[in-house]
Structure formats: C-alpha cells, structure tokens
Amino acid sequence: xxxxxxxxxxxxxxxxxYIADRSYVEGYVPSQADLAVLEGFAKPPSDQTPHxxxxxxxxxxxxxxxxxxxxGVKKAPAxxxxxxxxxxxxxxxxxxxxxxxxxxxxVDLFGSDDEEDAEAAKIREERLKAYSEKKSKKPALxxxxxxxxxxxxxxxxxxxAEMEKNVRTIEMDGLVWGASKLVxxxxxxxxxxxxxxxxxxxxxxxxxxxxxxxxEDFVQxxxxxxxxxx
Length: 230
What we know:
The protein is built from 7 helices and 4 strands. With 230 residues, it is an alpha+beta fold. The protein has a 4-stranded antiparallel β-sheet, covered by helices on one side. Belongs to the EF-1-beta/EF-1-delta family. Residues 144-230 form the Translation elongation factor EF1B beta/delta subunit guanine nucleotide exchange domain.
C-alpha cells in the first residue's frame, strides 16, 4: 500500500487505512521507522482518522530517552512518501517536571502524608471488617451421610410392610428416610433394605440402629449395608 505526503489530508487518510489493523508501521514493536513517519506529519491527525490518531498519540507519548532506545533505522517503510523539513510536525518532547520556585511550595497546608496514610489504613480496616462480617454470616456447610440399612426379619411369616411402616415412624432431628426395597435372603425370607440421609452432628447411627431393633416383634437384626459421606 502506498501512503502519500502525510502533510496532506489524503496522505493522512491513506495512513489511517494502513495502520487500522497494525500497532506499528513495521512489525509488532515500536521502532525508529515509527519516528520517521511521525516526523512526516504537519499536524496531529483528527477524529476523522481515528486509527492514525491512536497511533500518533501513542508514539508521541515516548520520552526522548525512550525514542533513542527504539530499534531499527530511522527511515520510513517502502511506499511511504515522507517529507521532512521546516513545515514537518516536530516530535513532541517530554518536558521535565518544573522545579518549585520556592521551598514553601513543599509545605502541605491541607494535610500531611501521615494523615493520608492514616485515612487509607482506616478505609482498609473498615473493608476488612465488612468482609469478615460477610464471611461470618455465610451458612456453614452441613456434613451429611447416606446410610443404607439391612433390616432382617425373624422368618418368612414376618409382615414386611408392617416392619417398614414401623421403621419409618422413627423421627429424629437431622434424619430423612429414603427409598426402600425387599431383597431375598434364603428359604423365602426377605430383608428390608432402606436408605436414609442423616446430619452427622445430629444423628448417632448407633442410636438409630437401636431404635430400629426396638421393634423386636418384626426385627431380628440390623446391619449397615453402605455408608457414604455426602
């Protein structure tokens, strides 16, 4: 792509199209070629050429020391018609901070650094306090377990439906009964397999087993077939 004289509106428009999908005129890092092209402008690009303006402001922001360290040769790429001279736009120079005219300027009449540090520390403490309070209000994770019981009857004449009905009458804070089924054992005898979910801190498994075994007219024994943390 050819870019004509950058001191003309047409040249700036051509450069705007050229730099639209680029960060720098050559490669992926700023170089002396960018400075060479910058010197070709008679004035900064306007809002009508946003890509050229973006590139121009970026390259112009480099300090003299940074410009000297840029790699490459100070020469515009092929296809650029860059003309320097007295009417070229000079590279904007980074001005050094001005020295205070009077030592009295160092006096802060409205507050000291110590006061600013104290205020910052106060704000930080308030934020930490708010975070701690928010965290403390977060509900704690409740530890639960899934327990599968094998409830065995005395014989094949035991009313298994009545057995299950009795087992489900057991109510404890933190206990929820789940699905159940009858599983064959031997000689026509079936056992009741029943699932439960318990909150570990509220329900003692040993106590729950004892409560099931209290239905001694139906229950011969109780085993834990499976125990899993949730």
